[in-house]
Amino acid sequence: MLTKRIIPCLDIKDGRTVKGINFINIRDAGDPVELGATYAQQGADELVFLDISATNENRKTFVELVKDIAAHVNIPFTVGGGISSVADVAPLLEAGADKVSINSAAVKSPQLIDELSKAFGSQFVVLAIDARKIGNQWTVHTHGGSKPTERKLFSWAKEGQERGAGEILFTSMNHDGTRQGFAIDPLSKLHELLSIPVIASGGAGNPQHFLEAFLMGKADAALAASLFHFGELTIPDLKSYLKSNGVTIRI
Q1: How far apart are CA 249 and CA 243, in angstroms?
Q2: Domains of the chain, earliest start first
Q3: Residues with catalytic annotation?
Q4: pLDDT at residue 162 tops 70
């Protein structure tokens, strides 16, 4: 088994880390620089930094904040929010980001995936997919989960891989913030469908949920936010639990 990754997610709004439930009811969760540094010290494998209001407010991710975070962490981190062109990416990588996450702009203009992969390499491109199960279909949403689209999760993930995405970050909107566990069935199907890593997001509530995501969902990494932000679970405790249950993890 390949080494699994634990990834705290820093959702940023107005320069602060925030967290909601089902993408709404946002509340403050602390300073992103301090949280990022703490997670790096605790043994997080990576960080994800998403400026969740950048697309809706039609502005770019705060490059200065990216620089500040990068100066305080020594692990890879991904930046997303408001990225819509190759020109948007270079300043972020120069500021210290190791990867970029694209979502709404890629749905609107799928060739953006090709362009970023060609310009920077597929290892720098994370295709984030926010999807909600409606009936029997997982429907892709954009603009921070506020706008449903015609695209479906599995066909869009497959197309993203073919266009050059290096990873898929799948967030189940049905599970986000509920603490009831990750969306195991679609994770497992994505694993079967794709040859690139899949990051599970949405629904983490306890260590067992991470174990299920790795063993049953076949996820390559698992992402969580409020569980870490509010001190309910520490990364060392989580990793110790996973290792004791047979998961290959970096301690």
Answers
A1: 6
A2: 5-244 (3.20.20.70)
A3: 11, 130
A4: yes
